[in-house]
Amino acid sequence: ETAEKGGYETFMLKEMYEQADALADTIFDRVARGDGVDLDEEGALDEAILSRARRIVIVACGTSYHAGLIGRYAIETWARLPVEIDIASEYRYRDPVVGPGDLVIGITQSGETADTLAAMRLARERGATVLAVTNVMGSQATRDADGVLFTRAGLEIGVAATKTFTCQVAVMQLLALRLAELRGCLPAERIAELVAGIRRLPSAVAEALERLGPAVDTLAERWWQGDFFLYLGRHVGLPVALEGALKLKEISYISTDAYAAGEMKHGPIALLDEMTPVICVATDSPVLDKVVSNMQEVRARGAHVIAITTEGNDQIAHHAEAILPVPRTDWMLQPILAVLPLQLLAYGIARRRGLNVDQPRNLAKTVTVE
Ligand code: G6P
């Protein structure tokens, strides 16, 4: 087992540091030709079917659901298609309105999650086209779907998903961009710019992982005994906040809440006191000013703001007790980078608490029963 960990103390740590390579494998040959995205690959859906989709429905569980949430923003913004997304265990029991013309995307790392498979089957029975986004060749999801797009993250052993998540986000962004191309929704220059941004993601991830260590350690040392963390974000920063909160909860057993920052005043603000760390996803975006206002509200209650920021934007540091900067990229692509410090922070805290991060209590890597 020590050999399998390749010198890392845990599988989760190894898998977090494999993210640059995993992304490179997932991305590169799909953006190798010219300035566009190529998803015309074996097992994938016929592009004529992609072009005909009138609506997208995303179903998934856990971390895969968070990747789906990011995919929704990309598909709506770039390809101008309506997107519905639901947790698979909810979708399958709500007699959903779905049928021909709908493209249903089941995102499942393992390809074996019972609820996601059931949601996909239901949609297919009702006449929808079903696409699986999975990391495992030959998994049940690949057999139940009309087409498959693989994440190529390699085997993930740690129960808490890390590299499969960033690769799922990348696949959803590639799909969104391809849909935009097929539908003629974005100018060629914007597509070229986004493709260039996607190509740079693996090296940006490597840089971020290399630089974040000391700042994350300081924060983990300061906060590892905390008993509650609040996570806030807006727009694509919201799924990042949800995922950061899930990571911490899963491996450190600390209770967390994650909220749309604008919704804070409708509840979570009542939880804040001088003991509360509040993690704010405050990377550059058109909604950054709004996030900063929320950070000010948090500080006015005496709570402690830890902000995920974009390198080079020094303004945000004035509104936070600590910052975790990540490399700059197009703001729609930022989630892949912004989640990294949150994975590392959850890890640093859980390890300081002496916990088994690879196999947290009560959790399974793959949930094949309801
Ligand atoms: C379990 C795992 C999570 C995962 C979820 C969905 O809860 O512990 O890490 O996100 O299942 O799994 P899937 O294989 O469908 O992505």
From TrEMBL:
The keyword DNA damage does not apply. Residues 45-185, 219-360 form the SIS domain. It catalyses: D-fructose 6-phosphate + L-glutamine = D-glucosamine 6-phosphate + L-glutamate. The keyword Transferase applies. GO terms for cellular component: cytosol. It is found in: Cytoplasm. GO terms for biological process: amino sugar biosynthetic process; carbohydrate metabolic process; fructose 6-phosphate metabolic process; protein N-linked glycosylation; UDP-N-acetylglucosamine metabolic process. The active site is at K365 (for fru-6p isomerization activity). Keywords: Aminotransferase, Cytoplasm, Glutamine amidotransferase, Repeat, Transferase. GO terms for molecular function: carbohydrate derivative binding; glutamine-fructose-6-phosphate transaminase (isomerizing) activity. Its EC number is 2.6.1.16. Catalyzes the first step in hexosamine metabolism, converting fructose-6P into glucosamine-6P using glutamine as a nitrogen source. Homodimer. This is Glutamine--fructose-6-phosphate aminotransferase [isomerizing]. It comes from Capillimicrobium parvum.
